[in-house]
Design brief:
This protein is α+β, with helices and mostly antiparallel strands. The protein is about 30% helix and about 20% strand. The strands form 5 sheets. Strands 3-20-19-15-14-11-10 form a 7-stranded antiparallel β-sheet. It has a 7-stranded antiparallel β-sheet with strand order 9-6-5-13-12-4-21, covered by helices on one side. The longest helix is centred in the middle third of the chain and has 21 residues. The protein starts with 6 loop residues before the first strand and ends with a strand.
């Protein structure tokens, strides 16, 4: 195997049966092999192990998600939800929507106080913030495309939870900084809180989570949505103001939706439809920027960035007005991504100045907060491809751990329009289309995407990052297709982000100062962010050569079959 890797041996001391010898691999080049890219080396290795056992990409992506729930608890989960985009070796395309849904007792104004003011603390923290988890149902919906039984696929995660693993410095810092939140929102002792601060190399053992996973291994999806785990989850709701019932859990259903497909310069983009806004935004942004022949400019040049900012501005304005759960609203996707609509939307673009956001939507002041999601890209040796983005929404979700079951619950209810016109934790404004209703799925920005060339997988890509997800995937696609960059440069190049509101454009701290200054001279308001997203990318050519890259911004890692 020809492996080009940036590898760091984090822990090499020996502790019996525990996972302490961890290697982060940032880049590999292989041929006719299965490859897994995820946010954590042990999760990527869990997926690769399943490939070695004869599983395919869909088996491996389930195993990787289970493992992330153990080793990457800030975003990996069984208490949240996600989206899968798949392209089988036969060319069949499919998606699985296991987004969380609003409980039966949820209501449009459930987060408003007596004066009608939105209380976003309730939608972001604690038990009332929790949507009905979809992840486990999603895994069981995915297994129909796999080759191995779930009992085998879940075992690597059980081993990781039961035996324990050495945490990285990043993980230690996150656990320490969130200790006050964990203590505030949990009445019982949880394994994520210690008497002394966490440090790199400490072993995290999760016995309760291991038992929860064993119940799933033994009883299937019913081992989560019914029986002991369901009882523990509902009991956790009753410790606060949570409203999820056993009936809610038992009635949860995934939705298998038609993939959103569109052409971009001879490539077929396959992405997630509503209730993910990501695929729609990606289609809009790519098409609008193509009107200016983006490929003739340099990557991250002033002209290229201006074109892309303005495409982002117009797309996000449409997100706020038109997008939501397609089972509850009129789905206008085909119109929103049509050339007829987008060419008209693009008419007021000018290289001479920034387009005021007031010209594409009503201005509402809003805050900006960070996010934590996670993405997995997988290809197997037979050419089956899978892209999954999954989340608890915020960092460690609602901060609530189900006592006795050992897993974090999401705070996904905040992705609804808590009050139409009021921004959520990521600053995204929503309207009536994304208002709260029982059993409704909240709008998402997750954008798992597979690009086909000659109807075969060419790129598998995705990232965490809340509302920065669609713009980061957008930049990844144009970096490869328009600017002809390789996977490593595409993933690790500095990124930027604009979402209509707020008016400012965010740039990573290492972005070109010359470009930023020239954009400011055109009237753009700018700010610096430490980090935008953590992209996982796999590129394939017609000869079976694979170039897989894990983002350098975190502990992300590649594993090979």
């Amino acid at each position: 195997m020809n492996k080009i890797a940036i590898a760091f041996i984090l822990f090499s001391f020996s502790v019996s049966a525990q996972y302490t010898d961890i290697t982060i691999i940032k880049e590999v080049k292989v041929k006719n092999k299965g490859v897994v890219v995820s946010a954590h080396p042990l999760a990527s290795e869990a997926g690769a192990k399943i490939l070695r056992m004869g599983g395919n990409a869909y088996d491996a992506i389930i195993a990787t998600q289970y493992a992330l729930a153990v080793v990457y608890p800030q975003a990996g989960n069984i208490g949240g939800g996600g989206f899968l985009v798949g392209v089988k070796k036969t060319g069949e395309k499919f998606t699985i929507d296991y987004r969380e849904t609003a409980p039966k007792k949820a209501s449009r104004d459930m987060y408003l106080d007596k004066t009608g003011k939105a209380n976003t603390d309730l939608s972001q923290n604690g038990r009332l913030a929790v949507g009905i988890p979809g992840s486990i149902a999603g895994f069981f919906a995915t297994i129909q495309y796999g080759q191995l039984p779930m009992e085998k696929i879940i075992q690597p995660a059980i081993d990781l939870a039961e035996k324990g693993f050495a945490i990285t410095e990043q993980e230690a810092n996150l656990l320490n900084s969130n200790r006050p939140h964990f203590q505030k929102h949990n009445q019982s002792t949880i394994v994520f809180v210690k008497d002394i601060p966490w440090k790199a190399g400490d072993i995290l053992i999760q016995k309760e989570l291991a038992e929860t996973l064993k119940l799933i291994q033994k009883s299937g999806a019913k081992g989560f949505y019914e029986g002991k785990t369901a009882e523990l989850l509902v009991a956790e709701m009753k410790r606060g103001s949570g409203i999820i019932t056993q009936e809610d859990l038992k009635n949860y259903k995934v939705a298998e939706r038609k993939a959103l497909e569109f052409d971009y310069k001879g490539n077929t983009i396959v992405s997630m439809p509503l209730p993910s806004s990501g695929g729609v935004l990606l289609a809009q942004m790519l098409k609008m920027s193509s009107y200016e022949n983006l490929e003739k400019y340099q990557q991250n040049s002033t002209q290229a960035v201006q074109i892309m900012i303005e495409a982002e501005r117009r797309a996000f304005a449409d997100r706020a007005e038109y997008m939501g759960d397609p089972d509850f609203i009129q789905d206008k996707t085909s119109y929103l991504i049509s050339d007829e609509y987008l060419k008209n939307r693009w008419k007021n673009f000018s290289f001479s100045k920034a387009t005021p956001s007031s010209e594409v939507g009503k201005i509402i002041k809003q805050p900006k907060e960070s996010t934590e999601t996670t993405h997995i890209s997988i290809i197997d040796k037979d050419g089956n491809a899978a892209a999954v983005t999954t989340t608890l929404n915020g960092l460690y979700g609602s901060k609530v751990v189900v006592s006795g079951a050992g897993f974090f619950l999401n705070n996904e209810m905040d992705d609804f329009s808590v009050k139409p016109g009021v921004p959520n934790m990521f600053g995204a404004v929503g309207g009536e289309a994304n208002s709260i209703q029982p059993n409704k799925r909240m709008l998402s920005s997750m954008t798992p995407t597979i690009v086909l060339k000659n109807q075969k997988p060419y790129m598998i890509v995705g990232t965490p990052g809340g509302t920065t997800i669609p713009t980061s995937v957008y930049q990844s696609v144009v970096n490869v297709i328009d600017f002809k960059l390789n996977a490593n440069i595409s993933v690790n190049a500095p990124k930027f982000h604009h979402q209509w509101l707020p008016e400012t454009v965010a740039f990573e701290k290492n972005f070109s100062e010359t470009t930023i200054k020239e954009l400011e001279n055109l009237g753009y308001k700018t700010e610096k962010w430490g980090q935008i997203g953590r992209t996982e990318m796999i590129l394939m050519d017609n000869n079976g050569n694979i170039h897989a890259v894990a983002d350098g911004r975190g502990d992300d890692s590649v594993a090979v079959e």
